[in-house]
Amino acid sequence: MSFCENGITHGEKYILRCVGCGRAYSDEHYRLKCETCNSGDCDSLIRAEYTEKKFRISESRGLFKYASWLPVKEEPDTGSSPITYKSRNLARYLGLKNLYVGFSGYWPERKAETQTCTFKEYEAFPTLVRFKEAKGNTLVLASAGNTGRAFAYASDILDIPVIIVVPQSALHHMWLPQKPKGKISLICLKNADYSDAIEFADRMAKEEGLCQEGGARNVARRDGLGVVMLEGARQMKCVPDHYFQSIGSGTGALSAWEACQRLIEDGRYGQRLPVFQLSQNLPFSPMYYAWREKRRKIIPQKDMPDAKAQIEKLYAKVLSNRLPPYSIKGGIFDLLKKCGKNIFAITVDEAKEAKDIFESEEKIDIVPAAAVAVASLIKAVKFKKVSEKDRIFLNITGGGEERLKKEREIHIIKPSKYIENTEAGKIL
Ligand SMILES: *Cc1c(COP(=O)(O)O)cnc(C)c1O
Ligand SMILES: [Zn+2]
Q1: Quick one: which of 38, 145, 168, 233 has the fewest CB in 10 Å?
Q2: First CA to last CA across the chain, in angstroms?
Q3: What's the CA-to-centroid distance between 252 and ligand 1, angstroms?
Q4: Which ligand is nearest to the CA of 320?
Q5: Which residues are 142's β-sheet partners?
Q6: Which atom of ligand 1 lies nearest, measured to the CA of 120?
Q7: How confident is the model over 56-85, as a mean pLDDT?
């Protein structure tokens, strides 16, 4: 290459580097993959490497105050941002001295104004901004509900069009805290699950003028979700000893892992990565089963036999990704090898009980997926996987939804198209 490696010029805010082969790229065209490592056994994530190594927040409001570690140029104004507080009541209930709650959702007393009520909002904003800056036309994505709502909201605020594919079972998640302005096309797949929606969106994105959003491969999604850990570290003054989160795809956990690596590189936030205490919801828990045998590959017949029926039984339906970035280099298997222990498998009853406990102690409602994480913390305490004084970060990935619906008017997004899943293959 002529000037620097792969045409990377000096002074760029960040470059993209392949976790597998180390090859570096400039980010000019919304790159999602390494050119050398993007198939079969060689599949690998790419990561953003920022020039700025010191953690810094800007003057911006909301999540773009972390823009020095987001792969975007602009910093749009938004109220969307996670908060972290030190728990008193739940901590006392569990006998913990240093329990921090990272909360994503609506909770006015704590100045939490994430109005679609989950951490998916932090992926949506930077993804759309990165897409626009790469001169993209229309973004296509699939969702089990929360992602779709978050992208719909960010699209509406930023005035950037999106096409969102959701299985019908997730349609009730598609609402906004404001009247949609009309840049959102919602496609409803009937008799389909989340993975069907992903496959359909993938095929659709190959059409002229459309572009795949990229899921976990998209650095804007991961670094967007990473702001939860950045805000946590800002409040805790270091990276935690333990990180608790329920996983569906695992993108959120990868984001936290990458954010911790950056914070450690900064030098002021500790030297040691947290222990990642992840959880899935039974009966659909493919990563739990694969990791239990320390296998890099998920074997569908073994780890998710009859996936559709299993997903049907889930309490936390958003934790239902059949194609998670688990085996991929830099994915969940690598994370667990480096700094994980167990994945907790949480039953529906355990999650429901955890929801009640959290809500009566902390006085805010939480979504089922967050309740799965709370249940895992309860188990970790019970089985002594954490000590009383450990600094614990509990990622409450969604909450305040029940409260928001009581206090604010919500607007249902109407599908522009319904497609029968069995027909979907014929259309695209
Ligand atoms: C998507 C989601 C999760 C799981 O996050 P992944 O990044 O898919 O693992 C957890 N909680 C809530 C509320 C979610 O919407
Ligand atoms: Zn590579």
Answers
A1: 38
A2: 39
A3: 7
A4: 1
A5: 165
A6: 15
A7: 96
